[in-house]
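I'll show a sample.
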Amino acid sequence: MGGRVAGKVALITGGASGIGRSSAERLAEEGAIVVLTDLQDAKGAEAVAAIQAQGGQAEYHHHDVTVEADWIAVAQAIKARHGRLDILVNNAGVAFSGSVVDMPLAQFQLQNAINIDGVFLGVKHSLPVMRLSGDGGSIINMSSVAGLKGSAILAGYCASKGAVRLFTKSVALECASVKDGVRVNSVHPGIIETPIWDTIVGTGEPGDNARPSRPATLDAMTADAVPLGKKGWPEDIANGVLWLASEESRYVTGAELVIDGGFSIR
């Protein structure tokens, strides 16, 4: 057990699997008390058990990030139990692919509700708790390379992740203006082996921010489209999250941490 975030309380949404779970595990390894939230209760319980088995401190809450009442309840629970919140990782997200002319409005709105409304609500209700200690804190919003570049078959997803990027910068300036010590940054994963790719299988062309129909596997796609020639793992993103959560990044706010094997610069 390390100590880079020892004694800090961290809230991670979408923490039951993928990047969220890996981030929770990494923060717990370095001494944080992690609060995982998700809709996948069984997987959330598994994640908590795995962290505790390694000597970490973790708890789980059922939480729909699109519902403001859920955010209020989670923030109140953290305040009552821990008296502080030092790290917020707004990780919960979803991706839908396809032509903009075929996407149902309800699907576009659902994607925005999870990907951007959830981030807004997270900041709105977590920031007051974070400010209680007077020690500052770190808000980490999960965007994507799709928030930096366009994709022919991910217009809605790109719109939502681009919104996260600029929302992050605006909140960073707001926190800096009141000198609350809270840093706010966005993380931009590239092609990472996570369940989100299951929703965008079989669409796009090489170079798009989605798995293409040819080649048919994620490994083949990354060999084709990513300069480093390989896909990333959730642990690659978790290491970036840890750095932004720790005092090692004390002078970093409003920044974009791109972890994509060079995908976005090709």
